[in-house]
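Backbone-to-sequence.
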């Protein structure tokens, strides 16, 4: 029996309400015991004094680009970036080529990621065939093939009747629809937030209603159908208010925030670099405060990365033509710890809940806690480590990161998958 003892750390396992000094014993890839002064016996001892031991992070929103776009990312590079960032389970968005709207594609994602990846990957199924917004994908078959939820991310489901139907059918099998809220008729050819900076630079803006109108619609549809809607990448203050009100009414709505929005606003976009171009666009200081308030009062349940790799050539086109999307697997935890925990807005356990047990609970995953008998997907965090982001040193194939050059406080220094160390001090061991 392979035994590992993580000795002398502070165990923070929000799913089990644990935040105290303790040892963690791992046997044959599973959590065997958490307690004080566990006898090592024949276990390999890893000294984690001064560090935090937590469940591996779960990212319910990332783009791994396989199949279809290996020049941007693949399962090897994407999961290595994840391991460096402290993530042990990724839910891959289906906007690949082909789109994950057929069981064969889901099976491919599962098999290939298992062969090439260093962390767990599970697929989203598309809401509509080809993400074209015309006809629903076969939800039941996709679930049978391993899809854990549905999304057309990258594209809004414009047709309200179809979205309503999707909520009814997915609701009947208790699955979540993770929705990209955008009204393209309002977005038009806007590229950044429709605010002060856009006006000053004379650039076409995207009004916040492009997002909020669809957030309101999807909450209304969830209310009427009883379906479960999860609002991806919430970007503006008004959307936070809508989700808060929806929750008060008992509607099945949840929301997610992307870490970049916690330390980046429209002011940062003034340099017009591709690594700040994202949808929804970075908003005002007020929007940013609202996102933080939403995280603090529980309106926003989940923190996810929306890791969206693009090649340097794609991002170096002029700003208007460059694609929307930024990478974030390697910086997410650092940004969250810096902006939410070291600032005193959330406790460490509250912040980690939004990256471990909350996403697991949302999608019904048997992950995200250090419960006895669970897979030993465990990370060790140095919460006080100050480090400067260098996107050029990342494990991702892409470099489109708004955090490049910034200093963050807090980092995963070890990632274990099924009891095996896959990353230590930034180095991949597999
Ligand atoms: Zn999206």
């Amino acid at each position: 029996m392979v035994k590992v003892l993580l000795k002398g750390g502070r165990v923070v396992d929000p799913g089990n309400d644990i935040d105290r000094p303790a040892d963690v014993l791992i046997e044959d890839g599973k959590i065997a015991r958490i307690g004080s002064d566990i006898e090592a016996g024949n276990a390999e001892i890893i000294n984690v004094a001064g560090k935090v031991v937590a469940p591996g992070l779960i990212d319910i929103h990332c783009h791994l680009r396989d199949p279809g776009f290996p020049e941007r990312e693949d399962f090897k590079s994407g999961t290595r970036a994840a391991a460096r960032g402290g993530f042990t389970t990724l839910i891959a968005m289906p906007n690949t080529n082909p789109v994950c709207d057929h069981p064969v594609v889901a099976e491919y994602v599962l098999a290939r990621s298992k062969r090439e990846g260093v962390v767990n990957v599970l697929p989203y199924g598309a809401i509509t065939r080809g993400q074209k917004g015309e006809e629903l994908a076969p939800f039941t078959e996709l679930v049978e093939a391993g899809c854990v939820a549905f999304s057309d991310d990258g594209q809004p489901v414009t047709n309200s009747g179809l979205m309503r139907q999707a909520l009814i059918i997915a609701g009947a099998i208790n699955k979540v629809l993770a929705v990209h809220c955008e009204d393209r008729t309002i977005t038009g050819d806007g590229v950044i937030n429709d605010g002060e900076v856009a006006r000053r630079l004379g650039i076409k803006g995207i009004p916040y209603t492009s997002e909020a109108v669809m957030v309101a619609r999807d909450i209304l549809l969830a209310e009427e159908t009883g379906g479960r809607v999860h609002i991806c990448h919430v970007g503006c203050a008004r959307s936070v208010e809508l989700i808060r009100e929806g929750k008060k009414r008992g509607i099945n709505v949840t929301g997610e925030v992307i870490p970049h929005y916690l330390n980046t606003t429209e002011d940062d976009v003034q340099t017009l670099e591709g690594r700040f171009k994202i949808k929804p666009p970075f908003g005002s200081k007020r929007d940013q405060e609202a996102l933080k308030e939403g995280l603090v009062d529980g309106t926003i349940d989940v923190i996810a990365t929306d890791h969206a790799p693009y090649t340097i050539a794609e991002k170096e086109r002029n700003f208007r033509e460059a694609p929307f999307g930024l990478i974030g697997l390697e910086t997410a935890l650092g940004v969250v710890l810096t902006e939410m925990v070291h600032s005193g807005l959330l406790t460490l356990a509250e912040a980690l809940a939004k990256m471990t047990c909350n996403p697991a609970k949302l999608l019904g995953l048997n992950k995200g806690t250090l419960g006895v008998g669970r897979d030993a997907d465990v990370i060790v965090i140095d919460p006080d480590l100050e480090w400067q982001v260098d996107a050029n040193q990342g494990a991702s194939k892409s470099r489109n990161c708004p955090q490049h050059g910034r200093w963050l406080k807090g980092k995963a220094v070890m990632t274990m998958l099924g009891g095996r160390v896959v990353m230590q001090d930034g180095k991949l061991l597999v």
